Amino acid sequence: MVDTVTSLEIDELHTYWACQRAPGSAAPLPQDIQKTLLAGLRLNVLETLRYLNYEKPSYAQFEAWIRERNDGELTDASLDRLRRALAGERVGSEVGSLDHVEGLSKDDLAHWDEHGYVILRQAISAEAARNAEMAIYDHLGMNPDDSESWYRESLGHSIWVPLLRHPALVANRSAPRIHKAHAQLWGREDLWVTIDQGGLNPPEREDWPFPGPHLHWDATLAEPHCLELQGILYLADVEEDQGAFSCVPGMHRTLKQWLSTVPAGVSAQQHAHRTLTMKPIAAKRGDMIIWHHLLPHGSSPNRAQRPRVAQYMSLRPTRFAYADKWTS
After folding, report:
1. Using alpha carbons only, what angle is made at residue 216 by residues 215 and 222, rounded to the nearest 5 degrees?
2. Does residue 143 lie in a domain region?
3. Pick from 293, 318, 300: which is nearest to 212 by CA?
4. Of 32, 200, 266, 270, which is least packed with CB atoms within 10 Å of its CB?
């Protein structure tokens, strides 16, 4: 009985737990529902899979872990919104009415259509960005004014910072302008923000070469080629040579044609590395770059004097089209 006791009252969560505990014991949830479920419960995908696979909890233990992860932040209202969305109801924005929130301009939307990325200027305030920037430095035990501290073992040879729930990062996920811009691009407001990590990309030096990620896709290249969005929030000013986010603009419109040119026996990723050139995207503190997930993208070597400090996040609707087959 302990494995079926529920306090969150979300049937899809029990199905998700059962499929991870004993693959094949139940029909897996559709990919979009899985992503909505985890985002609605403020869970990071990797931390959840690690917990389920290594700890192998009972269902009651899993629910208790979810509540502990959220430290009391799962309100009745947020859970009700999630239940209604999973039941097929059209729910509104998590942050309230977006009617009077300034989002992307006509020029921004035209840039998006042509290039597949857009810069949302002042997505959050400079103060909010600075607070999140300092949270990342503090988490790593670094001093923003001491360059030697930027290479401590706390970072490792990686630009990823597994800081998920600091209040400063949590606050940025509720920024109305971010929700508005994503609602404009998706054409709907029932969006769910991912619980993603931060990043710190320090200047390269002899004992710390740039580790990547280099040019890649996080998406399947199989058809149908569907819309999905990815995003990075700059927490400090970033110049083009400062480890900036980089992409191949416009590739979302020409991907199918380009794939037809990939030589037999060569993967699309290999061909992309040989033939495509990424463009680094500079932006200011508090700006957010949103890109179509079919754009090949990556970070870039930091050849400036200051680290690039960032927060990652994506917003998706409850249900969305996707390709089932994985091709890279």
Report:
1. 145
2. yes
3. 300
4. 266
CB 122 within 8 A of CB 177: yes
Which helix (H) or strand (E) is 193 found in, with range?
strand 191-193
Do 279 and 249 meet the contact criterion of CB atoms below 8 Å apart?
yes
Dihedral angle over CA of 108, 110, 113, 117, nearest 10: -20
197 and 167 in a common domain: yes
CATH number of the structural domain spanning residue 159: 2.60.120.620
Parent domain of 206: 106-317
Q: What is the pLDDT of residues 232-247, one digit of tens each?
A: 999 999 999 999 999 9
Q: Is the dihedral of CA 77, 94, 321, 24 positive or negative?
A: negative
Report if residue 2 sits inside a domain.
no
CA proximity to 196, closest of 313, 102, 305, 46: 313
SS3 content of the chain, % helix, strand, coil (to 5): 35, 15, 50
pLDDT tens digits, one per residue of 102-152: 999 999 999 999 999 999 999 999 999 999 999 999 999 999 999 999 999
Residues 297 and 178 reside in one and the same domain: yes
Residues 55 and 192 in one domain: no
Question: Cβ(16)–Cβ(44) under 8 Å?
Answer: no
Question: Tell me: the pLDDT tens digits for 117-127?
Answer: 999 999 999 99
- AA identity, residue 203: P
